[in-house]
Amino acid sequence: MPECFIAQYWREMNKMKAKGKSTTLSVGNLRWILFQLFFAGTDTTSTTIMWYMYFMLRHPHIQKKVYHELSEVAGVERAPDLQDKTKLNYFWASVMETQRLGSIVPQSLPHLCIADVTIQGYTIPAEAVVLPNLDAVMWDENTWEEPLKFRPERFLDDTGALIKPDSFIPFSVAYECYQKDTSDVAVLAVIAKDRDPKILLNCNHFWRRMCMGEALANSVLFLYISALIQRFELQPSVEGQPPEVSFVEGPVCPPGRFEVRFIERAASKTA
User: Fold this and answer.
1) Is the dihedral of CA 255, 98, 224, 240 positive or negative?
2) Could you tell me if 108 and 132 are in contact, meaning their C-beta atoms sit under 8 angstroms apart?
3) What is the pLDDT of residue 210?
4) Rounded distance, CA 151 to CA 93, Å?
5) By CB neighbour count within 10 A (0-12 exposed, 13-18 middle, 19+ buried), where does 123 fall?
6) What is the pLDDT of residue 64?
């Protein structure tokens, strides 16, 4: 079984100390990393779940489709597990559409450009702080058809297979590349559809940065939301009156206050 993050961090920290090398690996930094990991993961994940419930209240026909798929794959006698993840394309499409339209963290996190870089005629100097605007990408009319409509089908191809467009960036926006003429890593705030091929030619390696909590967040979202929809039908507190369109501004943006009724499904009562 692979070691956990803490064990690997601790081993590397002691290894660096034993060699007498200067390192930022310390107990204090470990505490801070763990705080960020759990705080960021729980806050954004809980907000995503709130947005999902909000959209299901406004689009009950989509909720029915998600439940039907869950019933076909996992049945009603057991809760969905991680082995079911790859079999639930419509479920994931509805989650991805929630992340896109809900815009959970509209400005993501600040990124630091550690080397001078020119992108399409604009120079970003070293040590400049780059703050991405995810809304401008995930609500872009030139990229998404009817971007302000909740439509999970946009993440499915004609065969029903799940697709993930480059402009779907709820977890990250930056790219990294090793320049051919330097050993430094340049952090580039570039959206895939706007990448200049010349930038790629100046790089030995080019890849998309990943949020280290993405895999954990997706697993938690899957287990919680799939079990929720499998067991309960979500209905507005007042029949026929779904919540109004609203959100709370901040670094993490939850929907405005709304009420929901959890109606236990008949199949769950007999399971």
Assistant:
1) positive
2) yes
3) 61
4) 9
5) exposed
6) 97
Q: Return the residue matching tokens 């763990």.
A: 34
Q: Rounded to 10 degrees, what is the CA torsion of 165, 170, 171, 172? A: 70
Residue 211 is labelled as binding a ligand: yes
60: tokens are 């009950």
Distance CA 121, CA 181 (A): 19
Residue 86 zone, left/alpha/beta (φ > 0; ψ -120 to 50; rest): alpha
Roughly what angle, to the nearest 10 degrees, separates helices 27-58 and 5-18? 160
Distances (CA, A) of 3 to 7, 8, 178: 6, 6, 29
Question: Hey, what are 165's tokens?
Answer: 């467009």
User: Residue 160 has which token pair?
Assistant: 């029903």
CB 206, CB 132: distance < 8 Å: no
End-to-end CA distance of the chain: 34
The three-state secondary structure class of 83 is helix
CA-atom Rg of the chain in angstroms:
22
pLDDT in tens, 164-210: 988 898 876 555 444 444 434 444 434 333 444 344 434 444 445 56
Neighbours of 165 (CB within 10 A): 15
pTM of this prediction?
Answer: 0.77
Alpha-carbon torsion (83, 50, 58, 266), positive or negative? positive
Contact of 128 with 113, CB cutoff 8 Å: yes
Q: Are 40 and 46 in contact (CB under 8 A)?
A: no
108: number of Cβ within 10 Å:
21
